[in-house]
Each structure stands twice: as structure tokens, then as C-alpha cells.
Write a structure and sequence with these properties.
This protein is α+β, with helices and mostly antiparallel strands. The chain contains five helices and twelve strands. It is elongated.
Amino acid sequence: MRSPGHNAQQSPADSCNSEFGFSLIELMIVCVVLSIVTGVVVKCIALASQRGRSEQTKVDLIQEGREFVDEFERDIHQAGYPGCRMFNGYSATCLPGSISTAAPSPMTQSTIAMGLVYVSNTEVVFEGDVNGDGLVESVWYRLVDSSGNYPPSTTCPCTLQRSEQAKNPNNSTLPLSQATSFSQELNNIVNSGVPAAGSVYGNGLAIAGNTLFANGSLTNTAYYAAVITFKDYPLFSAYDQYGNLVSLPKSIMNLADQTYLMESAQNPTQSVIKSIRLTVNLLASGTTGYDLNNGVRPVATLVGSGRINNNF
């Protein structure tokens, strides 16, 4: 017999029940904590994915724009080669301000590159052997609006188009009548300024549509072009040998403009276009290029400058 004060020894089963296992409350607490942690992790992953998508959109914008700007710089360096003063039969007829604008003319010869043909804030046309293949090409860069109009007249985002065609071998086609084939383009451009004489920027087209945030209460122009140079800066700007801004447009078909497009040995101090600046302000697509977190569309600005080496 055991004495009344002696405690009965616990069985192995009773010992396990008292030392192991979780209560229902403890399990519920663990589930709640795990749910909170999982929610935080999932949210962080989603935010990182959205930011990554937005950054990738901006990278794509910059890459596409940079390729187009680099091509423009390469092209413009070849403008005017081979020039008419390299040909004995035409050197005397290539004096700026007196080059005939009617066929037959040095302008119509398929083997002669006239260099800059037409320069405006929304279009640049020039001739040169841009491929190094011995053929003179007529190269056009122009900006069209969201409806495909040139000159641009409705809204942006606009598109910069490029055409390259060999000059017509019939030797009777003037520069601005050469065939075109616009096979390359850069989309989502929002600057389309056509400044008044003496101004650096102004008169850009509105940016179509409304923002994807604030319930669409803001126009894209009001938000993205709050700094007006974003839409009012010209696509093309021209500078002379002294670094001065040249008022545009200038056309080789205008005798008075020829002196701005070609250097003159008779008047070496005459202002002549020596470089063309290409400024591209890009706005990501409102369908696939916006930030899912805040609805803002990434923007990018790219600038290139091509020096005219052969306009003499």
C-alpha cells in the first residue's frame, strides 16, 4: 500500500500529452502570422514586378530612340558626298544662290549629292552616299502626327519616319521630287514644336488623351507637358558655323536659301548650316507601357547632333 500523501506516478501516455502538441489557439495564431508574412511577401514581389516592368519599358524606349538617333547622325555625316564640286563639268555651276532649280541642273544628276536639300523643324531631306556603295541616296526624315499627316497638324504621340532611295538615274528629277519609301519609324514622340523666328521652342501639338490616374481628370498635355518644352521643343534644330540658331525652313529650291545650305568660297563668312540637332522626347504607350502601380507612363529624352562635313 502507498501512503495517502504519496502521488501516483504518471504513466508514459500522460507524460506525452502534457509535454507535446499545440493547442487550437496556438495553431490559429501561427496561421494568422503566416498569412500576414505571406501577404507582405506577395505584395513586395508584385511591387518589384511592376517596377521592373516600368523600368524595362523605359529601357526599351531609350534603346529604340538611341538606335534611331545614332542612325540619323551617321546619315547626316555623309550628306553632300560626292558633291558637285568634285566633278569638273559642274564645279562652275555649283555656286550657292545661283544653282539652277530647273532640269537640266547639277541637282538632277544621279551621281551628284547636293547635301542638304530641305531643313525644317519637322523634316530634313538630304543627299549623299550613306551606304558607301557608290550610289547617291535621297534620304528623308519627317515627323507625322497621330493620324499620319505631314506636316503634323492634329495631335501627338507622333512618328518619326525615315526613307532612303537611290536618286533617279534619269538625271531629270529634282531633289524634292525624288521617290520615297518610308520603311523605318520611331513611335511615341511627343515634341513637335515649330518655333517662331528667333525662338528656341513653341507651337507644339497637344498630346492626345487623358491620364490613367486621377480618374482621367487630367489631360496628358496638362500632366506630361507641364514643362512646355516637353512638347514644344522642335524635333530638328539647325546651327551655323558660329553656333547660332538658324531660322527654318530652308530649301535648296529657293535661291536665297541655297547660301544657308552650301558653303560659298566667294563669301566664306556667310552663315551656313553646319550641324543639325535631333531632339526626341518619348512617352511610353498608354496601353502597354504604363506603371501598373500608379498609372504613370515613363518618359525619356534623347539628343543627337550631326555635323555637316561636305556642304561645299
